[in-house]
Amino acid sequence: MSRALIIGAGGVAGVVIHKCCQNSEVFTDICIASRTKSKCDKFKEELSGKTGTNITTAQVNADNVPELVALMKEYKPDICINVALPYQDLHIMDACLECKVDYLDTANYEPEDTAKFEYKWQWAYRERFEKAGITAILGSGFDPGVTGVFCAYAQKHYFDEINYIDILDCNGGDHGYPFATNFNPEINIREVSAKGSYIEDGKWVETEPMEIKRVYNFDQVGEKDMYLLHHEELESLALNIKGIKRIRFFMTFGQSYLTHLKCLENVGMTSIEPIMYEGKEIVPLQFLKAVLPDPASLGPRTKGKTNIGCIFRGKKDGKDKTYYVYNVCDHQECYKEVGSQAISYTTGVPAMIGAMMVLTGKWKKPGVYNVEEFDPDPFMEALNKWGLPWTENFNPVLVD
Ligand code: NDP
Asked: DSSP character for 143?
């Protein structure tokens, strides 16, 4: 019997909620709490009578720690699953500390005024979580999340040391719009318009945005252009995986997406610097978000598949070894099952699984951890069971 407080009621939250409700043996009670309560109530209505999980809803401003504390004291959750936005991470962690509630999220904290993806703010909570006897799991989505579990699995079962990791995130889906983002547009555009970077020989190497391009032929999707991006899991994996010489992250983008993005950038629409407009301060990127399609509305329109995984090169018993492990997920299948496209699905399923790992004691350890610091086996098994099966290839085409 366990109680989960789910914060946020957007695209990813929708999947977490559906998956917790499919898994009502573990998640006997959930409370969906977000800024807009009507969105929480909508999920409750949709699932009522279809699940053994008891669902309650609440309104909360997750930037307000006393409000969060009051909600946690009233609901008494065993875990808080944060699927609001990265800006809320530290506030929710503060409330969890005060109420001694385990914590899990899918994206690392970033301050609203600087697009920087670093773990330092959340890692600074380690000692306080240890002392409070509570567990925080950082980044339990797909990437970060499953990619970290894939790394831990490769390290545990196939390598003595891993020297090179390439994380490849391919979205072969088509929603039919000339330009839309698959998850929160503000977070997505901040991520892709930032400089690229990768880690080589223990140091960050910075690139211009989209400077490094490769073409890769993805299983069940086909050939796609992919670009090197900075991504948060590089920072933790470079510390937690033995023998790393280089780690990179690539994401696929279509030409139409990139042309629109360049144009929006050139006219200043992706800026996070506030400007005055008709006597009111507005942030151009937030205004852009308001005019773009809501990612949640892409579900019924998106066709095609995602393919996300990691290619490893390293040594086993003194010999060179390569290994590729990936998941392929079909947008339309996800929509049929939970009413969301595959980007939300591939993030929400691992969030539910991560929470289950904590609630069932498999990943319960006081402190603040990234997913690759735990035993990957029960998580890998759960991926197969809960909708994200993985495929292995021991002779993959490498990325140059
Ligand atoms: P959405 O914008 O669809 O949903 C965010 C939700 O958070 C909304 O319901 C929003 O409320 C709520 N929210 C925002 N601010 C507050 C606040 N102050 N208090 C309470 N609720 C608030 O985002 P997504 O579902 O697409 O993404 C959710 C998270 O998942 C993000 O952090 C994103 O970075 C992460 N993510 C991680 C991935 C991974 O693989 N690791 C991949 C994709 C996303 P309202 O409805 O009122 O706007």
From this structure: T
Q: Locate the ligand 1 atom nearest the alpha carbon of residue 142 and give its number.
A: 40
What 3-state class would DSSP assign to 258? helix
pTM for this entry: 0.94
Kindly state whether residues 134 and 190 are assigned to the same domain.
no
Per-residue pLDDT tens for 116-130? 678 999 999 999 999
Ligand 1 contacts CB of residue 33 (under 6 A): no
Going by alpha carbons, the residue nearest to atom 1 of ligand 1 is 10
Determine, yes or no, domain membership for 372.
no
Q: Decide: 138 in ligand 1 pocket, CB within 6 A.
A: no
295 C-beta closer than 6 A to ligand 1: yes
> What is the C-alpha to C-alpha distance for residues 374 and 29, in angstroms, rounded to an integer?
26
CATH for 260: 3.30.360.10
Cα 3 to ligand 1 centre (Å): 21
Total count of domains within the chain:
2
SS3 assignment, position 219 = coil
The whole domain housing 319 covers: 146-340+385-393
Residue whose C-alpha is closest to residue 4's, from 360, 379, 342 = 360
How many angstroms separate the alpha carbon of residue 242 from the centre of ligand 1?
33
Q: How remote is the CA of residue 232 from the centroid of ligand 1, in Å?
A: 17
Residue recorded with tokens 């993005």: 261
Q: Are residues 220 and 109 in the same domain?
A: no
pLDDT digits (tens, 9 = 90+) for 222-248: 999 999 999 999 999 999 998 999 999
